[in-house]
């Protein structure tokens, strides 16, 4: 595909679910999203996105663009029939989830290795510890528990930073 075709197809895949959701028309949202879903499935089948990494990237791009349009459409209609739009949106986002998992299965083993931790000079492990502490902190409601958790997370993150620093 040339650049114009990719750009036009990307715009169409974003606008298909976006316009009916803006107009708060559930039936039109489902029909136009089904058309976009069929386009994405056609791209996935015609490119055989399960064969190699380059085709998986193509499938992930187009399904991701369509998923972006679906999610933006859901945000536009948040104050109306949210349950129906959310269920339909979840169904239409499934190709992106599948493509992302297929792509991550190929790319992650090549990216994650011991050199990555030492290459970042300790910042990546520190960031991972802080993110884990923040995720655990979202589940707690007590102020005193949060103080202990966050201060402990910062101390552990600094120790991890100093350990992996060259």
TrEMBL record:
The chain crosses the membrane at residues 27-45, 57-79, 85-104, 116-137, 143-164. Keywords: Membrane, Transmembrane, Transmembrane helix. The keyword Membrane applies. This is Conserved protein. It comes from Sulfolobus acidocaldarius (strain ATCC 33909 / DSM 639 / JCM 8929 / NBRC 15157 / NCIMB 11770).
């Amino acid at each position: 595909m040339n650049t114009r075709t990719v750009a036009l197809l990307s715009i169409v895949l974003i606008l298909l679910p976006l316009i009916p959701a803006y107009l708060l028309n559930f039936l039109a949202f489902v029909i136009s999203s089904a058309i976009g879903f069929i386009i994405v499935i056609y791209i996935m089948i015609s490119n055989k996105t399960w064969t190699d990494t380059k085709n998986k990237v193509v499938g992930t791009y187009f399904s991701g663009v369509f998923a972006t349009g679906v999610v933006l459409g859901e945000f536009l209609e948040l104050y109306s029939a949210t349950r129906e739009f959310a269920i339909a949106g979840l169904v239409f986002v499934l190709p992106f989830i599948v493509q992302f998992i297929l792509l991550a299965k190929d790319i992650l083993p090549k990216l994650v290795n011991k050199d990555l931790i030492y290459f970042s000079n300790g910042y990546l492990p520190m960031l991972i510890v802080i993110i884990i502490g923040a995720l655990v902190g979202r589940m707690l409601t007590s102020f005193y528990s949060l103080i202990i958790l966050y201060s402990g997370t910062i101390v552990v993150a600094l120790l991890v930073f100093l350990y992996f620093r060259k």
